[in-house]
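Board notes, transcribed. Complex of a protein with NAP.
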Amino acid sequence: MAYQSTNPFTGEVFATFPTTTDAELEQAIAKADQAFKSWRSSSFAERRAVMEKAAAILRAETDDFAKIMTLEMGKTLAEARAEVELSAQILDYYARYAEELLQPQKLDVADPKTGRAVVYNEPLGVLLAIEPWNFPLYQVIRILAPQISAGNTILLKHASILPQSAAKAEDLMRRAGLPEGAFTNLYPSHAQVETIINDPRVHGVALTGSEGAGAKIASQAGKALKKTIMELGGADAFIVLDDADLEKTVKWAVFGRHWNAGQVCVSAKRMIVVDSVYDRFLEKYMAGIAELRAGDPMDAATTLAPLSSQSAADDLKRQLDEAISHGAKAKEAGVQLPNHGAFFQPTVLTDIGEDNPARYFEFFGPVSMIFRAKDEADAIRIANDSPYGLGGSVFTSDEQRGVEVARQVETGMMFVNHPTMVKADLPFGGIRRSGHGRELIDLGIKEFVNHKLIDVVDIDAPF
Ligand code: NAP
């Protein structure tokens, strides 16, 4: 497995990096462990300064960070710029709140004479972060900002198609003043990842990626008895109720399914539309997709980017073929595609029967599954008929109704009148095969801290 940058728009391989040697791996773990011994005692002011400096660098050099993402995985430059800003906002968030979120908690114990109990939030140590290619910077910052702010140190294993984005993240933190060893990018083989997980100096593993990778890494971590968080795949429901504002709903549906070329864990992958508005929705949705402009992701006019690689496009095609072979009907949107690049024709799938295995697929690209629901209750039933439980949305003109439906959908995040949203100050994570644990806000920063009880007891306390 090579660490290689390939431009998905041109097909050009423009950089290759050697795999980390075993000696380099050992040195990186030792340094991360060493760095932890001092970083754990750093003041919140020191950590805040690093977060603020990193955010300032990102804002000052937005295009540098954005361009390498576009070159390595093909997202539009506009989306890459927005990702840089989102990452800066996450750094800002923890600069501002980490100290407050990690304040010791004095417990309200039943008999105060027998104990003055306080829970302290102490860092665990070296963590391994394994990250996917779809958000080259944001995924790294989402784990880095809270965990570095909590006093942990991190070894990064980024996706093998993003070696330069990964190196740039390490360089960012070095320039922001983080001590050497506190955040190290590696280019390990999958076997070496297991070595890291088994190393006694490593105390936790955070993986964002596919369900398959999650199952493997969680079982390796389980054997080694290491705490994990797993941010895995999803097939978000996008429920359209009979009272939804159809014009606006369709706009969000087109956006929710096609931003980042449809390669988002929380893309609106399953449109579930109640019978009374189904036909009108479908007609408008097809028309909306047809307006997408495929082209050079560096071009501001492009609204449909290539997929991250030709192999991603080939895998998506195989899934689509399987859905069709089991009876689903496919209709292409007719977007004009460039004659090179890993583009995929946006396609809408309907008539996906209860026995069609594709019903439970995660289509990681511009393929929309559309389901006709008899009514609201049926829409909720279809939404919950999924192995995943990441995000989801409900469109209705009645806010309270939206909240009530949202409460019945079994996922980690639900939005009324917006596709699942990603923000610096909202929690992120799912249930079922979408993983476990949460990232961001207070939940994220507390995932890898030792909630340590210290109870000061009167020595004369009765037995
Ligand atoms: P992936 O193939 O699972 O890869 C994710 C990361 O895991 C990469 O760094 C990959 O490295 C590594 N990896 C995979 N198998 C491994 C193994 N056996 N041992 C060690 N490392 C391993 O996922 P992807 O294709 O990059 O990303 C798309 C998936 O991520 C989708 O399913 C998407 O829904 C999910 N995702 C979830 C979230 C969330 O927050 N819930 C966010 C974004 C994406 P290599 O590149 O070297 O294989």
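Residues 3-232+434-454 form a domain with the Aldehyde Dehydrogenase; Chain A, domain 1 fold (CATH 3.40.605.10). The chain has two domains: 3-232+434-454, 237-416.
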